[in-house]
Amino acid sequence: IKDLIDQHQPDLLYSDGGVPFDEVGLSIIAHLYNTSAGLHGGVNEAVYNQKNTDQQVYRVGVLDIERGQVGDVAEQPWQTDTCVGGWFYDSRRIYKTPAHVIQMLVDIISKNGNLLLNLPQLPDGTLDDECRWILKVLADWFAASAEGVYATRPWKIASEGQTEKDSGAFKETPVEWTPADYRFTCKGNTVYAFQMKSADQHAAEIKSLGLETAGKVTGLRLLGTDAPVTYEQREGALVAQLPQDLPAPHVSCLAATLA
């Protein structure tokens, strides 16, 4: 591994397990970081991923939870690695739906996580039609919702609603989200509220953005459209009316500007 670092100066080193070989493994991680710092003016830009959940261990890099999740906002950034199907192409596998992938992503980023998503390739290196379709739906969703994802951070709370995902590795079974379930991110004085399932009446009632909880909301936008959003902020909730034709598939995102 040291020879690999010396020859190729990787930006990412990934252990499919915990830090290997005790002190030897730690010295390799230090060598990765020192090599990166030497290439970038004294600033380390390399990332090391490993899967030991012991805080004293994973603080040396970024914790990776394979096909899993944490329960709430984590102090340290972390990562989920998963696949739409199996790690390798298998025509018998049932793929995750685009809605499942989008809902997973939003739940993960609200808790200070990142999603590393694999799409299995055919023997000739191309993607099958279903993978292409999944990517097309994801592209449409990001075209509307990217502002609430990129360069955001967790808000003071991750979630609102009764629906929760199990935490831990290999726990990514789809859950039955409701229109009362929200996940939050923020950027500056803007809070992004993702409604995990669209309401039949095309409305959103967000208790965490009530005047008593969040302070004054001075503006509200629905990402993906320039159409104005009618809303009322009460002491106990922010209530908004959404258009019949939502700009983002599966999960809509409201951007609330706080005073």
Q: Compute the CA-based radius of gyration.
A: 20 Å
Largest sheet: 5 strands, parallel
Give me the secondary-structure category: alpha/beta
Shape: globular
Number of helices: 6
Which helices and strands occur, and which strands form pairs?
Layout: H1 2-8, E1 12-14, H2 22-39, E2 47-50, H3 55-58, E3 62-66, E4 78-83, H4 98-109, E5 113-118, H5 129-145, E6 153-160, E7 182-187, E8 190-195, E9 203-206, H6 211-214, E10 217-222, E11 230-233, E12 238-241, E13 252-258
Parallel strand pairs: 1-2, 2-3, 3-4, 4-5
Antiparallel strand pairs: 6-7, 7-8, 8-13, 9-12, 10-13, 11-12
How would you characterize the overall build of this protein?
There is one protein chain. The protein has 259 residues and is of the alpha/beta class. The protein is 24% helix and 27% strand. The protein has 6 helices and 13 strands. The protein has a 5-stranded parallel beta sheet with strand order 1-2-3-4-5, with helices on one face. It has a 5-stranded antiparallel beta sheet with strand order 6-7-8-13-10, covered by helices on one side. β4 (78-83), α4 (98-109) and β5 (113-118) form a beta-alpha-beta unit. The N and C termini lie far apart (51 Å).
Q: Summary?
A:
The chain is of the alpha/beta class. The protein contains 6 helices and 13 strands. The chain starts with a helix and ends with a strand.
Primary descriptors:
single chain, 259 residues, alpha/beta, 5-stranded parallel beta sheet, 5-stranded antiparallel beta sheet, 6 helices, 13 strands, 27% strand
